[in-house]
Amino acid sequence: MSRKLDVITLENLHAGIMDVKNCVNDILQKLNTLQQRVHTLEIENSNLKHENKKLKCFLDQEYHRTDQLDQYGRKENIRIYGIPKDFASEDDDGERKLLKISAKLDIPFDATHDLQRVHRLGKKPKTEKANPRGIIVRVVSYKRRQEFIKNRKKLKGTKISICEDLTPTRYKLYNYISMKILNLST
Q: Nearest to residue 155, comparing CAs of 107, 93, 89, 108?
């Protein structure tokens, strides 16, 4: 009987070993399939990263191109700050105030021929004590605009300041650089 048990046990052991071999072969086959799939996904991921990098570069170029076009559209604009609004009247005559400023700057200026548009920036303040809103002015030519920019030094000592009309991106960059310069000088 012991011999019979030994044969049955050996047969069972042999069958068990065969089952384990089959399981190992199945696992190795699945592992190989998964490795191939991982390799395929790694290649696909690399291609997508490359495409994403190209799209980011293209988007960055388009952003800068749009900013350049926006700035070009502002080339005949100036911004004037520090001109108080006359709260007594509903009409804030920007043209009249611009003529006064041009006279202070010694710039011959005719509002009917040299001016395209003038208006206040931002929302109307709720109180008289609020800082006056800036004025944006569009003149008929770049040359006229440059006359204001070149002569703005003559307004030193007054509350009035004249600056270029910059895009929001360029305005942030201008402020950043100005702050760096101020920090270096102190």
A: 107
